[in-house]
Amino acid sequence: MSEINEELISAYLDHELTPFEREDVEAALAQSPELRQLRDELETLREDFNLLPVHHHQNLEQVLEHVAVSQSLQPGIANTPPKPLIKKATFWMSVATTLAACLLAIVTMRPQPAATNAERLAMTDQTESSKNQSLEQQSRFMDKAMPNAAGEEFSGAMGGMGGGLGRIATADSVSNEPSGSGGQADVRLAKEPQPEASEGGFGQAEDGNLASGGSAPGTLAVQSNKKPDYTVTLAVSRNELTKLLQIIVPMPAAKPAGNEAVQSKSPQQRKTVPANVADTPADPQTRARNQNARQAIAYAVEHTPQELRKVLDRLDMSKYRIANTNEDLPDEKAKKHLATLLADKQNSKLQVLYLITLEPVEANAGKEGK
Amino acid sequence: MSDEEQELIRSILAGSSEAFERLISPYGDRLFNTLAHILRSPEAAEDVLQDALLQAFVKLGTYQGKSSFYTWLYRIAVNLAFSYRRRDRPMISMDSQKSELGDEPISRVDAVDADSLRAERAEMLYTALGELAEEFRAVIVLRELEGCDYETIGNILQISPGTVRSRIHRGRMQLRDKLAPQLKQDPSTA
Fold first, then answer.
1. A255 Cα to chain B: minimum distance (Å)
2. What is the pLDDT of residues B39-68, one digit of tens each?
3. Is B2 on the interface with A (CB under 8 A)?
């Protein structure tokens, strides 16, 4: 029997043949006992699939609710108020709250930038009082959406992780290197959701208490209304998040100048950021829950094509499991897409979205023990 | 894509979280079952399903409607499943898979020889399916468990219908060879 004939038997059973092919196969079956035996065996095999176990998701509604609620907290999907979370698992909530925490920390830690750098980052200075007010309002906003215990976690995480991220972004922003030192975090948030952002934008924060626009000096203007050019999916343990972020937004060798607040905090932040991210509040129940929770972060960064290539190369060499970086394309096409993107956008910046899953501590403890 | 789905997508992009739940609900459990068989692990399928739903939500604005929403969603999920496997996550043991098999519709009552043989064959099939290379397992699962036609499978996996046909046949032949001793014992195939 030829390979072609055998394939036609499978397709025949699946009713995938053209009428002419079907006629040929039926004629061949009539003449060949071997083909008939093959047909019978494959038919029995297909029937056996009815005996396989059927897996049911135990809490699909909760997953859907969390995805929907966590995304509704992000700017751009503004109108539906978030549902109060009553379940213990809050890992999807951390997408919005951690992102908000990172962004706020960047606001607080960012030094007085030079004019060109300030324009690039699109985050302007705030007066101390308005900054504190924004933080307080943001904190209230998050507390409204999250149980207190989880809110405490992110209050802690804000300082630590945010400090670390602020250090990274800040150091990059004051660097004299135009863009070769690494990517810049695009942390623009707008008060009102931008219609075009809903067509694929990401990272818009929605907080009516934040000032809008970005045109007024002294206001916090954060907006990201661009569709990401590229998406990278990563998984990392909590205590390695800082290392991963340093790959994504590497720090330049030189320490930032002219920002004593950052410099004075840097050595401690370097120690405390991983700890604060891995640490949990004093409440042991919350600690246990948070350590075991799987959380996700959406992190938007602007790269030049060269920077993106370097970051991807470093990620490939790292142990941070990198998924197919465009999950709606198979590997070969994803590689071609990346090559095309890098070639087409040689002289411009790419909006890169990093979707980072924070692994629960338990999942990594076993691996580390191996 | 149906009118209802179009309307739900518009609502989601306008900010409705309820619309997202309604959009996904018809597919969620089916997709979970498919992922569980592709990944050979319901636990892994939970992780991948969560990631897939998040991806779908984040990228919903890029969905152009060229393929059905079902195809688009499954494409995201199956690619994530392939990536998940490449990350070499720990899989559940075959023993735990077998014990789970025992809780499902297969009867373990040794009343009738034919029933016992079918139960044993189901277990063998479950194992054999897990041993297939992922490109064969994916097409077989999509065909046999999801009931997708070759064109839909091709759209999900971004391969041609000819490649789908070839992989399905080769996957079935490998399964047949692994299960050959069982098939010979089955009275219905005698």
1. 35
2. 999 999 999 999 999 999 888 888 888 889
3. no
Instruction: Please tell me the distance from the alpha carbon of residue A328 to that of residue B107, in angstroms, as a whole number.
Output: 39
Name the maximum alpha-carbon separation found in chain B. 60
- Rounded to a whole number of angstroms, the distance from the CA of B4 to the nearest CA of chain A is 18
Between A78-92, A166-180, A289-303, B54-68, the lowest mean confidence (pLDDT) is in A166-180
Task: Return phi, psi of residue A217, to 5°.
Answer: -70, 150
User: Residue B144 pLDDT more than 70?
Assistant: yes
Q: Which residue has the tokens 């991220």?
A: A165
- The predicted complex's ipTM stands at 0.81
Q: What is the Cβ-side half-sphere exposure of residue B106, based on CA atoms within 13 angstroms?
A: 28
Give the span between the Cα atoms of A77 and B34, in whole angstroms. 30
Q: Count residue pairs from A and B with Cβ separation < 8 A.
A: 206
Which residues on adjacent β-strands are paired with residue A296? A357
User: In chain A, what percentage of residues exceed pLDDT 70?
Assistant: 36
The answer to whether A273 and A311 are in contact (CB under 8 A) is: no
Interchain CB contact of A72 with B (< 8 Å): yes
Min distance B189 CA to chain A CA atoms (Å): 7
Residues 6+ apart with CB under 8 A from B44: B35, B36, B84, B89, B91, B92
Q: How confident is the model at residue B139 (pLDDT cuts 50, 70, 90)?
A: very high
User: Is the pLDDT assigned to residue A29 strictly greater than 80?
Assistant: yes
Token pair, residue B137, equals 């397992």
Distance CA A197, CA A214 (A): 16
Question: For residue A233, which residues of chain B lie inside 8 Å, CB to CB?
Answer: 51, 55, 80, 83
Report the amino acid identity of residue A364.
Answer: N
Give the mutation candidate from B54, B66, B121, B129 for the A interface (greatest A CB count, under 10 A).
B54
Cβ–Cβ contact A135 with B under 8 A: no
Q: What's the confidence (pLDDT) of residue B49?
A: 94
The answer to whether residue B181 neighbours chain A at the CB level (below 8 Å) is no
Question: Cβ contacts (< 8 Å) between B29 and chain A: which residues?
Answer: 56-57, 60
As a whole number of angstroms, the distance between CA A12 and CA A159 comes to 63
pTM of the model: 0.52
Dihedrals phi, psi of B158, to nearest 5 degrees: 60, 50
